[in-house]
Amino acid sequence: MSHKKTPRIDPLTLALPPVGVDSHAHLAGKEFDADREEVLARAAACGIAHIGNIFLEPAAFAEQKRLFDAHPEVFFVLGIHPCEGQTCDKTALETMRQAFAAEPRLKAVGEIGLDFYWDDCPKELQYQAFQQQLDLARELQKPVVIHCREAENETLALLEAQGFAGHPLLWHCFGGAPALARRIIRNGWHISIPGPVSYPANAALREAVALIPDDRLLLETDCPYLSPLPWRGKRNEPAFTVFTVRHMADARGVSPEALWRQCGDNARRFFGLADGA
């Protein structure tokens, strides 16, 4: 018995106005070495005006930011990932401080947080790195982008205990239920939605998407990971946000174009991006 394959729809057939923002991408990775320019061109053709490229440690930023010299639409986010928390020492923090002072395209500290799924870094070192980088974000007066995996209660407890409610904060790659979304919202923070909102099993995530206030919602790929349908299992890229936003719009009962504009406006405000930059 044969099974029908989901047809692979060209994202260009669903292009939206040129105001979209992919708030979280990893375009410096080797997965894009063969066709990075084509990927960026496809994103623009699909309506992406800005892309946030995430650098997971200072050395990567220093080595790879040149990849985007010809692409002012790409802005930068820099932090030490929790799985690399053991590298967050005084030298690394000072290097980050100097990078933010020198590079106006650096808009936020992240992705930082806690990750108890992987066993790459002891929890105590993750906590220490998280706290140090929260302090750095406060010092620099920069927004924070949170990475949290299987550590939701611990992450929220630390942030709330540190009085981070109301500080500009984006919960990256949200995959939780309505209760988690409500707690994030109560603290005045933003939530970014990735491709898995399109997966049939993720009804609770779609319920959460439906209740997030209009001005707190962002859109992301986390590419090359987490492709939305109909490209699940393939390399993700910023152009695929045109699929993700349609599933989000269905959950919220609005048009994809209206939500595209809203999420783009929210990202520009959160990261301090100029409309034409």
From TrEMBL:
Q: Which UniProt keywords apply?
A: Hydrolase, Metal-binding
Entry GO MF terms:
DNA nuclease activity; hydrolase activity, acting on ester bonds; metal ion binding
Its domain of life reads Bacteria
Show the CDD domains listed in the entry: TatD_DNAse (cd01310)
Q: Does the keyword Cytoplasm apply?
A: no
Q: Which PROSITE patterns match?
A: TATD_3 (PS01091)
For the keyword Cell membrane, the answer is no
InterPro entries (alphabetical): DNase_TatD-rel_CS, Metal_Hydrolase, TatD-like, TatD/YcfH-like
In this chain, a divalent metal cation 2 is annotated as bound at: 147, 172
This protein's GO CC annotations? cytosol
Q: What are the binding positions for a divalent metal cation 1 in this chain?
A: 24, 26, 111, 222
Q: Which protein family is it in?
A: Belongs to the metallo-dependent hydrolases superfamily. TatD-type hydrolase family.
Q: What is this protein called?
A: TatD family hydrolase
Native organism:
Candidatus Desulfovibrio intestinavium
